[in-house]
User: What shape does this take?
Amino acid sequence: MLFVLQIRRCAQECLEKVLKSFQSSAVIKNASKLAKSLLMTYMPVAVTLSNTRSLDGSKEKLNTKPEQVEVLHMLNLLNLTIPYISVKVLSKLLSELCKLMSSEFSPLTRQIFKAIEGFFENSNDEVIIPEIKNIINSLTEYTSLGEKNPADTIMSAASLLKSALAKLHAVDSKSALSYVPIVCGSLRGLLTSETTPASQASTIITELISHHIDCKVLLSKGVQPFGDDRVEFEEANAIRSTCALFEDTLSSYAGIPDEHILAIVSVLFSTLGEFSYRFMKSIVIKLAKIMKVASSNASKIDNLRECVGAAVKAMGSERLLVLLPITLDTNDFTCSNIWLVPILKKHVVGASLGHYMDYVVPLAKSTWRAGCKAKTSVIGQELQSHARGLWELLPAYCRYPVDLHQNFDSLAELLIKFLNKYSFMHESISVSLQVLVNKNKSILGSKINTSDSNIYTTKDSRLEFEIEATYSEKTASRNIKALASCSTKLLQSLIDIFVDSPPGTCPYLKEAVGCLASITDSSCTKRIFMSLLEKLDLINGEDDFKNRETQNQESIDEKPEKLSTNETHSWRCVIMDLASSLVEGAKEDLVDLIYSLIQQTFQAADEIGHPEAYHALQRILEEHTWFCSSRFSELIDLLAGLKAPVNIAALRSRFACFHIVMVHTFKVKIFLQNIDKLFF
Assistant: This one.
């Protein structure tokens, strides 16, 4: 038996080589006749076999008659010859092959599917398209039976369906879309399987949705994303049917749906985008009902939250909150849909600052006041926690807002009030300002300092990249101007809070100061900085540090020497830490002032503030290349004359400074050598 198989395999390989080698019309004609003759000869037996049922789907022969075995070999041979047969004969062969397809597994099913795959890979549309709908209908009937047919053949049929719809889409996208709900319906039974087919079916369905649903068709027909009118045409009906299909699937689950169906619904939201508000309202409401009764299964809850997050990104927070409003009941002190807050915090992109100020802030205020009036401390603390969560949605609403240039003036006034009144908002406001500045600067191609980057300033979704792509340089430039118009007041407030905070406890404040300083007029930044130094009595007429130790010695009767020294040390660190944040947007006069402070700090024998001074110097050298040129000798003397620090952070900054200076040295040397070659 093994010998026979080897001979057959060798014969097939020889035939394939011959057909590849001889591409004349005569060879193709003879090969086509032979293939057609073989198929037609065995068709009666093939029809009988295709109507034979195998209960277990095994590959073992149900009969031992030679002609039945030869049918299987004939189909394998047919698959080999497809690339070398004429179009006319291929069309006939495919038509005959479709007659052998059945909704139930037969001994020929695997070979038939393999042959159809060969047709898809090696035939043109002239052969396939006339039979494509028959193929789709037959495959759909087969996959609809689900686990009644062998799992491997079900997945083969599903894969063929994806290929068939792709073929149809290339010539008739409307017809292909009309089949999407039918095909998805035939595959959804696999989603509840605990085996591999569930994952594979989910992947195929999501690919079908992504490939065939195109909202541009709806826009071209004048359909508005947020309308409530029922539109009746073929594409809209297909989309509506697809959404209804998966709404029914969600309803069939007793608890939280599994990851496969949630992944599909998420892709449906993403593909429909704003049109999901028109077609998927009931799915959003269904997801909310599931969320309210969900168990504490962490992984399933996370999948459900991500699915709701996909809805937020698709239709926008404003529209989603129309469907699922967050409301406060002052009678029983409960908040409906408050579970949405962490989802909104993660997924809101491209929202409206006006919506935050007009909807979120008033809701947060009323919730806070209700917490103050609550009858029990537990309820009061819970309500105030909800209010904080609502206020802290600010960074999310600052990710590519659509109305920044119209509403930032009003927002800035609100932020300054928050900074002065609510300490818990300091981080959210700092992060929000960084997001607004950095994302608009990135559109304009400005360099963003990432040395102190944080998780809030990273891109966290595909939608964010898409929205960034729609932001023109004109829009970003207009936004930066709006930010800069209010930056001085915000910068003043942030600096006041920064210097009043314990050193090293609020890095987000320092980062926000740096962002704002980068877009603020340098003269305004210098004025704020000078005012601070004067307030702390740390400068004289030459804009230098005073010798605090001498001053403290003169006023020894007023304050203990130890306290005054510690105070000096503390302010030295704070001022140098702040100065490094002001470097990016600084002009020459402010840079010179900061450098003077750096020099004075290095003169202190106790080395307090040296790490901060090294970092400030590093920032100057990184941001202002002219400074290295104008102060080259002075910098060399300064760095060479300083004792190497023990502090690791200071040591890193010191090496960074040396590196920049040395690179500059080599560049100058090369330049001078080239000048010598040119003139001498």
About this structure: The chain has a mean pLDDT of 84. The CA atoms of residues 349 and 464 lie 6 Å apart. The longest strand covers residues 327-329. Residues 16-54+62-171 form one domain.
